[in-house]
UniProtKB/TrEMBL annotation:
It holds the Pfam family AAA_21. Residues 369-414 form the DUF3696 domain. GO terms for molecular function: ATP binding; ATP hydrolysis activity. Residues 24-353 form the ATPase AAA-type core domain. This is DUF3696 domain-containing protein. InterPro entries: ATPase_AAA_core (IPR003959), Bact_Antivir_Def_Nuclease (IPR051396), DUF3696 (IPR022532), P-loop_NTPase (IPR027417), P-loop_UCP034888 (IPR014592).
């Protein structure tokens, strides 16, 4: 789980300051304000950590099959107007749920542009407990390795960091008995980044039937691809978790009042299956129901499929859902973050989701320590972040005016017009 994030000169952000991330973090704000940049910073590191080329410093994307985003060039990531040094940085802190030699740590990496135009690491710092390890670029391809802020223990052109999160073998050797700790730290970092599940706002339409090849997919893709594979594997594999995902999703669809349940129907004796949606005694193929159910399915499946301790990042999960269903999404995030130890970082424009989150706090079904609600706005060329101050009754004391419209003002105006007509 990521516990904090800070961006400097990254896209719309000059400096976010240290942002506290909670088990459920809700990002709100106007269009093109910088919300997505917060999410993209972690996804940029995820696709770098998964790069097949270990010598890569930062994978800005371009491979439509394996990359989450195409960030373009160094100048497309660097905040406009940044002067010397032309450098951006990403920092975060994390805690791990899995058994590991490293239970918590911090990551900090700054990037510059080399004379060749490539994006290179200027300084990588990894720390856990009282130990801090750095790789600092001196000139061209030469890097110096530091341990616990002492004098450099090595300097050479074979010490460049790998995939933004790891020290090379030569650096591990130079660090002596602390080399193993650095390896464990890098491995934990990689696991945290790889366990990010990301769903974007554009998701696939459903098929009429699906083929199951008796395997479990490694992850759900950003457009929701592999969602049904996860459902089929969970329902058709006869293990201790048989049907857990399908039953859980049926429960939330019923709470949202969009369906009573989901079932899986085999077509003859083939390996083809239909996803059936049951509502008011009628069963229909997933392809034949409204678009809301197919679009929310990846969100619900991700919550159950993500490994405990991992992070699910969602952009506009409420797309094509009616107001009640949007409200229930807040309950879904709070419930699964607690029961499955899954972190949710949610970018949304839904007033109904936000209002239900306030109600859950007032009901004491969650607390302000478990929820972070952040508002992002644009002032001139800078993105500005405001942490919404929420009390134990869910009330916000520093809410930006008119972001969700002026419901009270609308009601007042309707009453005024009704009274004026009656007087006439």
């Amino acid at each position: 789980m990521f516990t904090s994030l800070r961006l400097i000169n990254f896209k719309a952000w000059e400096d976010t300051g240290t942002i506290a991330l909670k088990p459920v973090t809700v990002l709100l704000g106007t269009n093109s304000s910088g919300k997505s940049s917060l999410i993209q910073s972690l996804l940029l590191l995820k696709q770098t950590a998964q790069s097949p080329d270990r010598s890569t410093h930062l994978n800005l994307g371009g491979d439509e099959i394996s990359d989450l985003f195409n960030f373009g060039s160094f100048d497309d990531v660097l905040k406009r107007g940044t002067r010397s040094p032309r450098e951006f940085s990403i920092r975060f802190a994390f805690e791990t749920h899995a058994s590991s030699q490293v239970n918590a740590g911090q990551f900090s990496c700054s990037y510059r542009q080399a004379a060749t135009g490539a994006t290179v690491i200027q300084e990588l710092a990894l720390s856990t407990g009282e130990h801090r390890f750095r790789a600092v670029r001196k000139e061209k391809e030469n890097y110096a390795i530091f341990a616990d802020n002492r004098r450099p223990c090595a300097k050479d052109n074979h010490l460049a960091p790998e995939r933004s999160i790891a020290f090379p073998a030569a650096a591990i050797v130079a660090l002596g008995n602390k080399g193993t700790l650095v390896e464990d730290l890098s491995l934990t970092l990689r696991r945290e980044l790889e366990n990010i599940c990301y769903l974007g706002p554009f998701r696939r339409k459903p098929e009429r039937d699906y083929v199951w090849n008796k395997t479990v997919p490694g992850q759900i893709e950003s457009d929701g691809h592999r969602t049904i594979d996860v459902l089929l594997a969970g329902a058709l594999n006869k293990d201790s978790k048989h049907n857990e995902i399908l039953q859980g999703i049926s429960h939330w669809l019923a709470r949202m009042r969009v369906a009573d349940k989901l079932t899986i129907k085999q077509l003859g004796r083939s390996s083809h299956y239909e996803i059936m949606v049951h509502k008011d005694g009628v069963a229909a193929n997933l392809r034949d129901v409204g678009i809301g159910i197919p679009l929310i399915l990846p969100v619900l499946v991700a919550g159950y499929f993500a490994p405990p301790g991992s992070t699910v990042i969602l952009e506009e999960p409420e797309i094509h859902l009616h107001p009640l269903a949007q409200s229930v999404l807040a309950e879904f995030f709070v419930t699964l973050s607690r029961s499955r130890h899954v972190q949710f970082i949610v970018e949304t424009h839904s007033e109904h989701l936000f209002r239900r989150m306030q109600t859950l706090i007032a009901r004491r079904e969650t607390t302000v320590e478990q929820i972070a609600m952040l508002f992002v706005e644009r002032v001139a060329d800078n993105a500005i972040l405001r942490k919404l101050k929420v009390d134990e009754f869910g009330r916000v004391s520093n809410w930006p005016q008119y972001f969700f419209g002026d419901a009270l003002g609308e009601t007042r105006e309707q009453a005024r017009l009704m009274l004026a007509r009656q007087q006439k």
